[in-house]
Structure formats: structure tokens, C-alpha cells
Known about the structure:
Blueprint: H1 10-20, H2 39-46, H3 48-60, H4 68-84, E1 88-95, E2 107-117, E3 123-129, E4 145-147, E5 150-152, H5 156-175, E6 183-190, H6 200-207, E7 212-215, E8 225-227, E9 232-241, E10 245-246, H7 257-268, E11 272-273, E12 278-287, E13 293-294, E14 297-306, H8 311-322, E15 332-341, H9 348-362, E16 369-371, H10 381-385, E17 391-394, E18 400-401, E19 410-412, H11 416-431
Parallel strand pairs: 3-6, 3-7, 7-17, 8-16
Antiparallel strand pairs: 1-2, 2-6, 4-5, 5-19, 9-14, 9-15, 10-13, 11-12, 12-14, 18-19
The chain binds zinc ion.
The site of zinc ion has 5 residues, from helix 5.
Amino acid sequence: MGLAVPGPSRAQAAQAALLMGATSAGAASSATAEGRQSAVWRTAEQQQAAFLSTLKSLVEIESGSRDLEGLRTMADEVASRLKALGMDVKTIPTKAPDFHPMLKGAELGPMVYGRKLGKGSNKVLLIAHMDTVYPRGMGAKQPFRIEGDKAYGLGIADDKAGVALILHTVDLLARLGHDDFAELGVLINGDEELGSPGSGPMLTELGSQYDAVLSFEGGGGRADMVRLATSSIAIAELKVTGRASHAGGNPEGGRNAIYELAYQIMKTRHFGDKDKGLKINWTVIEGGGVRNVIPAHASAIADIRSLTNADLAIMEQALREAIKDKLIPDTQIELTFFRSRPAFVPNAASVVLARHAQALFRAIGLPLEIRDRASGGGTDAAYAALRARGGVLESFGLRGFGAHSNDNEYVMIDSIIPRLYLATRMVMDVGAGKVRW
Length: 437
Ligand SMILES: [Zn+2]
């Protein structure tokens, strides 16, 4: 393509492409790209069949976030594979904090933490989650299958492929006899889809100990990407207490909690600021119970997103102000505002990691977009980045589609080898101290 472009020289075109983050113009075509001549690439190529078989095993274990039995089976599977790859492995029991508005101290899926020491200078941590948003039984409708260039299955994109990529990255490094890192760590949690209420503090602690944390959520749809930003998430709960009374005989004597709650929901539903990515959506509601009684209780839960942690305070303040104005003066309104997941705000080291990943992809003849604006999703990279000692980077998973939807979920088979190559090279380069910030 570069040769056909008139005007600027090839070198200039390549330079411009580099600045724009594009990679095709002026770069070697993918077949002759130098990265593809390497032992890492060739070993990754040999792994594809084994990778798909791992993916199949992981998809076949249903592991919804509240399915403790399924999550324990998954944790055992992941732990035994990491042990077989020479890691020291611990399975860590996990529970929600008592003050969580919905989970209130509940037991959650365990974390699997594996470590391997090497001879190099830096510590690298790979993270992914094994829980899904789907309850037990749905797997039968979306079994693992390969059709054309796609592998389908429930939870395959979010985030079984991420777990499989980590297992095979550790495997690839072992096959290459590579131990030029101070430590290679793996943390797989089982409560991510709940907001990581149990594993979040551990992720933050590990982020403060490792030189780099790579998080393996999905790596894009049509185009490959890595992320330098994810949203902050909060949960608001409104509880209204009114007064019960007979709906036929004495409705005036009651104070309708549902009316008051509806008033508050309608008033607050457009709160936020588009430019700041600050938004609220009321998603769960409960109230009343008996047809002929004026309801004394009603409650609702809202999902709140923001690009920064600080902006959540604006939303909390606005809600606290809003509930002072009531439709029915002698009802009581209680607001709980729970900060669930922080926003991922990258530091300078994270930006360096992203550029390095882009350069590695360029060397295998592929573009890699760096996304530095969050689009509403929240991930565990944010917990790892809160007190990060080094860099944190998100979206090391496969390209795919259909996470959290009713559509069939799939991953792109042609992204397996490039993504295995990328993760392996990132561990090698960061572990050996070749990436500096
Ligand atoms: Zn996920």
C-alpha cells in the first residue's frame, strides 16, 4: 500500500502512520513482518489447537458469578493447570463486604493466585476473571462450537478466552525456557461481574507490588485494541417508607411509598453529564405486595457510571439534594450510595506499556488501537491501577462479540496467535526491564 501512495516518501509515510497509531502504510506486509519470523510467533502458532481445546474445557464449566459450585470447579481447573505449568498456586476464599448494598457479606467465587520466580529484573502480573453473567443452564443453549473463523460459547469472549490466553502465555514462556523476569504472577478472580467486591482490594494490593499488570478482557470487535481507560461504577439504592392503609376503606390514611419512589426516579433519571460520561440508570425496583393495601415500602437500585472517581461525588450530591424535595411530605427516604468499581485512570507507565504493545503488533504487521476514553464498561484494571507501582493495561483478550447480550457470544480464531504473541512478548520485554518509564 505504501508503494502505491504518491507524494510523501515511504519513510515519511511510515513516520506519519506511526504517529497516528496506524500500521499498515509503509510497514512490511503481515506475511513478511519480522515478528512472524521469531521463535515466539512460531511457538504460538503451534499452540492454536491446544488453545481451542482449553477454551472448550473452560466454556463447558458454567461459572455464573453466584454459582459457587461452578466457580469452585473452575478454580480447581485453573489452579491445577497453573500448577502443572510450574507455578506456586493458592486458592483464596473471597467474600463481599458486609456493607455492600446487594451482596451484604455473601461468599463469592474464590481467587486463584499463581506465582513463578525467575532470574530477571521486573515483576509482571496477568489478570482475568472466570465468572460470567449467565445463570446455570444457559450453557446448553450456547455450547462450545467452531464455525468458520469464529469459536462460539457462553462467556467465551467475557472472559474465558482471557483465562485461556493467560494459561497459554504461561505455557508458551515455559516452552521457550524463558525466565528472564523477577516474577510472573497470575490472578484469576470469580466476582468480576459483580464489581469485584471481594477481590478488588487484593487487586489493588498486587498492583502496588508488580511492575506491570496486564488485564485480559476482550481485545476489541472488528479492530484490535488495548484500553487505557474504563468507567467508574457506583450503585445507588433508594428506600422509601410510607404508611400502610386499606386501599378501599381508607386510602387517605396511607402514605404511598411507590408514588414517592416513582416521583424520585422520574426526577433523577436524566441526572449526569454526557461530556463527563456521568450517567444514571434505574434498573431494579421493588414495592408493595398486597393489591388492596397502600404500600408502605418501595425501593429501587440505580447503576451509575463515570469517567473519573471524583465525578461520582457530583452524582451523589445531586441525589442527596433531590430527595429533600418530596411528593408526599411524610414519607421517609433513605439513600445508599455505594462506590463499586473505580475508574481506570492511566499513569505515565501505562501509556508507555500501551505504545510498546502497539509496536509489538506493528512488528507482526497488524494495527492495534489505543483507546484512552472509557465507553461505560468497568474492569479490574481499575483496581490494579489505584496504587500502581508501575503500568497497568487493559484488553489483552481476543477480539470477539456478544458479551452480556442475548446474542451468541464468540471470539475470532484469527486473533489467537497474534494475542498469544503479544502477551508473551509483553511479559518478556517488561520482565527483562526492556520497557522503561
Ligand atoms: Zn469481563
